[in-house]
Amino acid sequence: MIPSQAILVCDRDNGFREALRNLLFAAGYPSVEVVGTVRGALAKLRRETYGCIVIGISRPGPRERRWAMVVRRRQPDAKLLFVVPAAAIPVVKTACFDYVIKERAFSMLLLLTEHRQENCGLQ
User: Fold this and answer.
1) Where are the domains of the chain?
2) Whole-angstrom Cα distance, residue 123 to residue 19?
3) Helices 105-120 & 14-26 angle (0-180, nearest 10)
4) DSSP structure class, residue 33
5) What is the 3-state secondary structure (H, E, C) of 56-108?
6) What pLDDT does residue 85 have?
7) CA distance to 25, 57, 59, 102, 106, per residue, from 87 (Å)
8) Which overall architecture, per CATH, does domain 7-118 show?
9) Separation between Cα atoms, residue 25 and residue 63, nearest integer Å
10) What's the pLDDT tens digit per position in 37-81?
């Protein structure tokens, strides 16, 4: 089975999530959906299959671990990536999930998408 290339972005910041969607579309991802709430993300996870789920968080803590468990239970094959503020780095370093620093999210995701394009012949 080929994993889905669809991406789900969940972040409260409308400007950030729309900019991220535009960046991912420009990088060649065929399907990028955005939501602003956990409730909206859960509804999408029930109806669709995603290859990657990007979740913006403001303060890492136990809630994110629960969130990660729910996502992994519903979509075990999806890559889960949290976007966290730089101030949260000391807390996140001990966490059990992958993350990108929000202040560097666009440049980091550009590097990841450039690597993906090279491997998929999208240049």
Assistant:
1) 7-118
2) 21
3) 20
4) E
5) ECCCCCHHHHHHHHHHHHHCCCCEEEEEECHHHHHHHCCCCCEEEEHHHHHHH
6) 84
7) 29, 12, 9, 10, 17
8) 3-Layer(aba) Sandwich (3.40)
9) 29
10) 989 999 999 999 999 899 888 776 777 778 888 999 999 998 888
